[in-house]
User: Fold this.
Amino acid sequence: MSVSDDPALSRDDVAYLAGLARIDLTDAELDHLAPQLGVILDSVAVVGEVADADIPPMSHAVPTSNVFRADEVRPGLTHEEALSGAPQEEQQRFSVPRILTEEA
Amino acid sequence: MSSEDDLTRLSATELAERLAAGDTTSVQATQAHLDRIADVDGNVHAFLHVDVDGALEQADAVDRRRADGELLHPLAGVPIAVKDLLATKGMPTTCGSRMLEGWIPPYDATVVERLRAAGLPILGKTNMDEFAMGSSTEHSAYGPTRNPWNLGRIPGGSGGGSAAAVAAYEAPLAIGTDTGGSIRQPGAVTGTVGVKPTYGGVSRYGLVALASSLDQAGPVTRTVRDAALLHDLIGGHDPRDSTSIDAPVPPVLDALDGDLTGLRVGVVTELGGEGYQPGVRARFEESLELLTKAGAEIVEVSCPSFTKALAAYYLILPSEASSNLARFDAMRFGLRVGPEGVDAPSAEQVMAATRAAGFGSEVKRRIILGTYALSSGYYDAYYGSAQKVRTLISREFDAAFGRTDVLVSPTTPTTAFEFGAKLDDPLAMYLNDVATIPANLAGVPGLSLPIGLADEDGLPSGLQVLAPAMADDRLYRVGSVLERLLEEQWGGPLLGRAPELASSTGVGR
Amino acid sequence: MTTLPGLVGFDEALETFDPVMGLEVHVELDTATKMFCGCPTGFGAKPNTQVCPVCLGLPGALPVVNGAAVQSAIRIGLALNCSIAPWCRFARKNYFYPDMPKNFQTSQYDEPIAYDGFTEVDVDGDVFRVEIERAHMEEDTGKSLHVGGATGRIHGAVHSLLDYNRAGVPLIEIVTKPIEGAGARAAQVARAYVAHLRELLLSLGVSDVRMEQGSMRCDVNLSLRPVGQQTFGTRTETKNVNSLRSVERAIRFEVSRQAGVLGAGAAIVQETRHFHEDTGETTAGRVKTDAEDYRYFPEPDLTPIEATADWVEELRATLPEAPRVRRARLQQAWGASDLEMRDIVGAGALILVEQTVAAGSSPQAARKWWLSELTRRANETGVDVSELAITPADVAGIQAMVDAGRINDKLARGVFDGVLAGEGTPQEVVAARGLEVVSDDAALGAAVDRAIAASPDVADKIRAGKVAAAGALIGAVMKEMRGQADAGRVRELILSRLT
Assistant:
């Protein structure tokens, strides 16, 4: 199921997007959010009026290229530092709950 | 007034001079500001975390270095506050969110490293709209910051804490970040100075990312000179940030108090007019007269694509943010909660429940919006088109700068509004940024300085100066002269007219 | 292989159906550091000791591209006869998975650094041209340990443990265009392509391409269409294909399975499947209700890559000789026949033979050991010959001992046993197992005397001139010496006593 063609977002559309974004929205939030997003989307649809296909999209404000670093080891974090924020830790690894989906 | 008050009323430049002359120590200065924070922050709530011990230790260390005869940076020993969006090793970094409550980064942002190396004691972390999404600091998960001019009003956002801290004399300097105006807009509504450097001018390494192609860290101060000193310290190339500019910081210090004769100042038609509060416009017109008297030539320029800037911004930002905020998933750091009533939930369930609990409504709104704008079938119409608008805006800036040296506008359409006034109307909230956003889209630098109080409400308004990319020095040239002329008229800084803050019983919340 | 209901025999399937394959190979580059940060990439470190804010995806961290990885990517593209994009960018592939710290992978989407190439693969003496769609740069994920389930796999696991040492290691993904026209040789073509790619990458020096260690991974895509039809059928993607043999087996199984499904009038489900080493079968992964929307967009934290013509030519000059040229050169150097070369290549042993010769062995001996003894052992244990726990240097060392008369061919087999069992170097194994040929004439002579004394009638025959009868005595001596004697010398000793 994908998002409907109508520029206003339906409640189901928002629920689908929330799934993609891994956020559990409550019913109240879903009710509240859909019209708000619709209003925002209507006003930002303004950008679609830029019909000129000749305009290149800009993804960087600063035009540079080939910014590289040398293939040299740099100091990183100790494992204590790396794990310092871990909600749960086991065997020097991050412990996470059982994963349902297969690896992509 | 006690001597402590004296120290907190000094500009950073003045304080630095006293430190260099040996008239005071960093420990004294830092203590004075910590006392001020303890005194008034209960009411202002600019700070989320105050590092009393750490700041004094750092101050002591700098005093020793100075006593040893070490050659120090001009700002060494001057205390500073840092927006809670920057990673500070050993100090909580919450980004104004429950998601990162109590998170202590294991590393420092490059900007923070530079502050520490120069010996500026870090007083603490300042309040902000959650993950920098907002224009009023009302979206902080830890309660809003209050405008020192009127505690019933917003201090601007997302960097309301840094601006309020500086306006309330809790710190002479602060670091902010600006993605769509989050330094400049709070500056305008609190009567302080805020600068967004050229994109890439200051390292983003350690800035928790909102919109990667728009974010910049910059100075938040009470004077233009102070901002120049801080800009010069934090700016410059960082090999850890691929988007940072590999060139020296523009000559911002040399530009101070320059000559404005013959300077072509462009007034952008689209950044003014209807929707701008009359008192704001009045002060703006008066500033234009002052600039003319100083020898500048005022030119009208039109940038039609600027009317689409808000729309483009509110597509680009959420898109990039939705991706940047995906890492907050309860697996490696930050909040972890499970769905209610579920035994042994899966990782997916924990992620979704945590993100629901950890993110506030504005953040959720923008993540959903961004997810939509990037989703297949919609990319071209939304994100793709927004990037094209960006090119148009950039080209119009280029064209405008072909005829002018700087552009000016009121920084914001209105003065500080009351709490709650725009919370239910996201679009109305977004309109606060209409004048500041174009600069972020094009990557050009901008400065806001206070230009007076609006007649309707007696609240500060600001003027924004914009310059071509890498010509940040022009901001300071214009800003410093205008500031001097205005202060001559006022008989002192505008902040001198702010009401004295009442003492509160404690710090923080 | 168990016979599932509905499987059609491979050869039978190919009478009705034409297989179309697509191979996606992920190669881990052997750069010193990761793709976007300066963490080391070495294998086998303690968990989470080769990480930093960048590869851990901590808030505020930013990537910086490893220049050496870009160079390798371009060289790989050139070696595959690809066009190199003069300008390209990285892109974010957004999806949530705990082994991916940022919950997006920095990869390349519609602007791969190399595209539209081809490579020519030797398949049983014929040349098969495989078209290359693209080669692009991306980063590897962390590794998960699934705890609590029966098989250590994800199903039934109670929780998982994440190690991010591998997160951010540079990967090059090489994707073929649909491989058509392989027909009955589909499985061999697939295997030969992957073996050929391995060889190419080794010769470029960009990766150690050890499939068993995961530095080269292969996903196998397969669809069937009725013979003569142009449009492609529905394809499946099979993962966890960890060796050359598995590539071949996975193709064979999928062909059989899909033929069975289609033959029964059902439709192929487009899905990702998992290959099982032990059974040679593929099983369905979780069926995805939606194709995941990856919401690709250009990576704003990185700058574009400009592969200028000068730079590309500079790199082109560093390419090693093309595989066919190299093989021709080696064939000539070794004095091998076309058939012998084909056998070596077919067994995936070309580099091994080459390295064994470089370690001092004769080409003939190198070939002999790798193609006979070691290939047999590889087949017995179900691994690729390159995965055996023995190095070309070891093999050369064993042959050197044979040449020196210290061991014979029969004893050499014992040495192979020991080395493969992890008992040590060839020299250590010979010493520990006592495999050395006895060359002490006094000891041999005593054994000879005992054999003669035990068989007086045979001895008489020899004395009478029937030299051939010595064979029985040689046998007896060899038996006593447990093969640790040079049969020729034994014969000499026998004859010198009796004639």
Notes: Chain B has a mean pLDDT of 95. Chain B has 16 helices and eleven strands. The domain at 7-274+281-301+398-497 of chain B is CATH 3.90.1300.10 (Amidase signature (AS) enzymes).
